[in-house]
Amino acid sequence: MNRSKVAGYLFALGAGATWGTTGVLSTALYSHGQDITGIGFWRVSLGVAGLLIYGLFHLEMFKVDLKGFLLIFGVGGFLVAIFEVAYPYAITGAGVAGAAALLYLAPVVVAVLGRVVLGEALTPLRMFLALLVMVGTMMTVNGGELGAVLQGNPTRFVGVLAGLLAMLSYAGTTLLARWSVPRYGSIRALFLELSGGVVMMAIFLTLFHRPPFAAPARPVGLAAWGFTLAQAVGPVVGANFLFFAGVRRIDAAPTAVAATIEPVVGTLLALMLFSQHLTLLGWLGLLLVVGGVAFSYRSEAAQA
Asked: Helical H runs in the chain?
């Protein structure tokens, strides 16, 4: 068994588990009156501030060629901005479990585009496992009651559309990370991508008359700042470091599959803390996700 691949899977699982706290922390922020359009900007900004402090003692973090800057800061920053604006709307519209579930339609997209863009192997087993976790995650939307998504509830419908948009941006950042991390390193790639996201979010939000530095977009009160800082340390910086460490060691497709542990963690936390519930079909969906991740890990390790 290749230790590098084992480590890659463990890093990806750790990233997914850390991302699973996003919904809980976001819901806590909403309860303190935080405007949903400002969460992404401030949590990413705090993450960038921490990386800037690190960079003062490691100046090589700021060195990058033009191609890397345009792709990581430009394209990567755009994808981060789309995700950070869309995902809070997915949480409020489709619930914590539903937002996480919609996000993890991404393994199928990553598996296909990984072949087209990066030339990675698209084996029948990889495609089957990506489809398996896709079905499992879809079954957890609204506790497995998929028909409720199409029952004319505008908030729910907007939440689903936002979740799909967040999913596409997540798939894009996964492929970009697979290209950029081996070339520029995890810290430099993460700093450039998040910095680009902050700049673009500031522009987008201002154009839509939601400037992030004005109330109510900025956190108000010690508790709101605390939850925002927790998101910056965990889901933004910590989870991305783990994810980048995973994508450095294994292909984009199995990394995306392994990270689907997020909806399991997010849903279980929502069940324990917010009295959200799952139907029997929803529980079956979570079992499919866990089974798909475990079998993918075993098959990739066996191939190694």
From this structure: 3-19, 22-31, 36-55, 66-68, 77-103, 106-118, 124-139, 154-184, 186-207, 222-231, 239-249, 252-258, 261-274, 280-303
SS3 232: helix
Task: Enumerate residues 6+ apart whose C-beta is below 8 A from 293.
Answer: 13, 133, 257, 258, 260, 261
Both structure tokens of 217: 């977009």
pLDDT tens figures, 143-154? 544 444 445 566
Sole residue written with tokens 């068994």: 1
Structure tokens that stand for 199 in this block: 């700049």
- The predicted-structure confidence for 221-252, as pLDDT tens digits, reads as follows 788 888 889 989 998 999 988 988 888 888 77
Spatial CA neighbour of 261 closest among 231, 279, 239:
239
Distances, alpha carbon 268 to alpha carbons 100, 166, 286, in Å: 11, 21, 10
Predicted structure pTM score:
0.79
Token reading at 147: 């028909």
Task: Give every CB contact of residue 59 below 8 A, 6+ residues apart in sequence.
Answer: none
Phi, psi of 70 (to 5 degrees): -65, -40
pLDDT at 304 over 70: no
Q: Angle of helix 222-231 relative to helix 22-31, nearest 10 degrees? A: 170
pLDDT digits (tens, 9 = 90+) for 69-79: 999 999 999 99
Q: Which residues of 227-238 are buried (b: 16+ CB within 10 A; e: fewer)?
A: bbbbbbbbbbbb
Mean pLDDT of 278-292: 72
